[in-house]
Amino acid sequence: MELEPHGVIRVDQRLGEPVGVAGFDSITRRPKPRPVMVEAGQHRGEIETGGLPQRRWAALKKGAIRVATLMEPFVSLGLKEGAHIVASCFYRGGEVISPNLTPEQRKAYYTAENDAVDRINADFYKYAHHVTAHAGGALQPHELLRAFVRYKHVDYYDPILFTRTYEWMKARGLAEGGSEHAALVR
Hints:
It contains seven helices and six strands. By secondary structure, it is an alpha/beta fold. The protein has one domain: D-Maltodextrin-Binding Protein, domain 2 (3-Layer(aba) Sandwich), CATH 3.40.190. Strands 1, 2, 3, 4, 5 and 6 form a six-stranded mixed beta sheet that branches. α1 links the parallel β2 and β3. α4 packs across α5. The longest helix has 20 residues. The N terminus is likely disordered.
């Protein structure tokens, strides 16, 4: 399971912290934590959501936007090409699997995922080319900054944390509501 890094990347030298993004075109992607990082400096309606990381990176490079939230390999690529990090955070991508799995299948899936985490962490750069491939040749595997890629064993979503996050998303129109922890996380 990857703990995805998300850096609010800028090319505009005037931006130095999240509150500094106010009034700048920005783009992020659902769900949290990306909007959380830029919300301090933007009004809710000023944060555009959507789009693949490649699209956000391309818009940033063309000057169509001045700040974007990106994940690897685009954090490392942005730093390589002179961009700067305004804010960063990690989130875990666990428990994102089919709800139709039996308990035995779910256990086998998590065991396989944890085994993969151990293999990747034992020899990270053996597998880095899978991450850098998304940069279309602009970033070599050895240029991928290890500080921004973390793999760890599966975590299970805590119902209290899930509810807090889900309520935050509903309040900002990022989720329609009506979903409970028990219905989504088994």
